[in-house]
């Protein structure tokens, strides 16, 4: 073989080796630059707080800047779409919440495919939900509330964080389970509905434990039951609505991390494992449980199964309460 042919052959070998080994090497050194978590809601809410807690510890572990960027709007669609269209290299991740599986049931057209355009990484936490009244209301128990609702004119009201939300579903199922009429009052978030409950503008409301806990502790709100399937570790003395004879669908809220589809599997597994390690740290467990949040840190496979199950359930439940997808 001539020297020129040998050089040409060597060049081809180097090129092929680089093409084959490049992705593996990139995955082995990930992350080598800033990692960004996009939260599709406003700063200050529970999903944002949890993401920042986790990102701060990941930055120390990865020895790379790990930032949180809020892209709120359009029922979380804006931030979610941004991540769907980001490079699948692990450097832009979605830190989202239950709205991720509600959106496809609420809207006819969404600019991304919830299943095709994302790879589940891990569910970070589970969110327990309470059914609440004012502490000075005459309703000491759920039977008290039910008895009053049977004769109330106009019907007693309940607040939720929006049409088609899990709280809305809970309220309609509660009304059916109690055999009463309740007036649904939708809000744009938990805090506005909780504020109106405190102010006496509505008779009852659903709220996550984290939102309700300060008002339970200072004696301004009373919980009549846990809407989730089991008692909350944050408030273990409060019985579930199911224990009181009102079965509700399993719509436990969650926060979780997803990546753009096509993100290398080793990166997915590394993020999941590192987040699991952080969420298992005793001080982190305490911080989250003090906010009414239960650490989960599921595998990518388990979180994917949860997402698929929830997507099916939401599309089935919304028509049951008279909600059809909007344009």
Offer a few descriptive terms.
327 residues, alpha/beta, D-Maltodextrin-Binding Protein, domain 2, six-stranded mixed beta sheet, five-stranded mixed beta sheet, 45% helix, globular
| Integer count of domains | 2
CATH homolog superfamily of the largest domain: Bordetella uptake gene, domain 1
Specify the overall morphology.
globular
What is the arithmetic mean of pLDDT?
A: 89
Q: Which structural category fits the helices and strands?
A: alpha/beta
Order of helices and strands: HEHEHEHEEHEHEHEHEEHHEH
Q: Give me the CATH architecture of the largest domain, please.
A: 3-Layer(aba) Sandwich
- The tally of beta strands, per DSSP, is 11
Distance between the ends: 68 Å
Give the SSE map.
Layout: H1 3-28, E1 35-39, H2 46-62, E2 66-70, H3 77-84, E3 92-97, H4 99-106, E4 118-127, E5 129-134, H5 142-151, E6 156-160, H6 166-178, E7 182-186, H7 190-199, E8 204-208, H8 209-217, E9 221-226, E10 253-260, H9 265-279, H10 282-290, E11 293-295, H11 300-320
Parallel strand pairs: 1-2, 1-3, 6-7, 6-8
Antiparallel strand pairs: 3-10, 4-10, 4-11, 5-8, 5-9
Helix pairs in contact: 2-9, 4-11
